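ok trying again, last paste got cut off:
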Amino acid sequence: LHLADSAPLTLPSGDAPELGPEHHALLEVLAGGGAFFFRQLGQQLGSTDDAALAALVWDLVWASRLGNDTFAPLRGLTRSGSASHRARRTPPRARVTTARSRSALPSRSGPPDMAGRWFLLPEAEGDPTRRAHAAAEGLLDRHGVVTRGAVMSERTPGGFAAAYRVLASFEDSGRARRGYFVEGLGAAQFGTAGAIDRLRTYAPSGSEEKPVGVTLAATDPANPYGAALPWPTSTGSSNGANAHRPGRKAGALVVLVDGSLALYVERGGRTLLTFVEDGPVIATAVESLGTAVRRGALGRLTVEKADGAGILGADAEPIRVALEAAGFVATSRGLRLRG
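nice, full thing came through this time. structure:
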């Protein structure tokens, strides 16, 4: 995601992919400013081929030339059978309509991955110094305390060496502080004054306080595991049946309890890993996961395996009991909870 006021500094730069005359014609339509619905683009270009026009649009999106005002195109693109997927799978000369295989009538709003309004993105800033400063400011905003692992997890151009030089200059100008703020993460740590002050006020939860759980995307900067911190060993690793390993993967989830990793949920939710054996902590983690599902953030979630064992089997009894207490219902495939 690129904020409008800083997009020229954060959009990818470098050699642009080769564009054909159809791409340039589409860019000319949008060059006057404003935003166009898919059908309006087709009218301006005189195009009646939805699949071909959708492919042109996505080519320009990947080239960092076009944006959209909703998330609907991305949701439509990730569903199977989208128009642009079909356009990429089928060679142009093979797309022949016969009497037996008539194409469906075009919808009024266009393919699902073409929803919303399309507009031209600003030109990327060419000054590498300004871009490096914007990248460093973004790291500080997202992480609070920037470590080598945080920089590497975001695949920042130039890696940690490039970010270090800019952050060191921030220290000289008073825009950041360098120090050993978090134990075990090395001395090359940079943080904002506000983040460091909050760290200094931190105190572990008392034994009488209820633990606090939070469910996050595994790739969220608020999840330090797999970036600033290594992934811990799951409780089911010792039995040899667990072939899954946690990772900062799109679609995967983590549940942190008082900041410590308690659960890892694979993409799709069919498999989860546990990292604690304490009953109250597991219950808090599962309660947080169930709350995220009921809010509608995850859709339907059906857990089939935990730590490599079937969720309905005897080996998964502790986590199964916690899931059932959180509202998960037993089905033939596993434990299910609907949003």
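cool. Residues 141 and 192 are 8 Å apart (CA to CA). The two ends are 26 Å apart (CA to CA).
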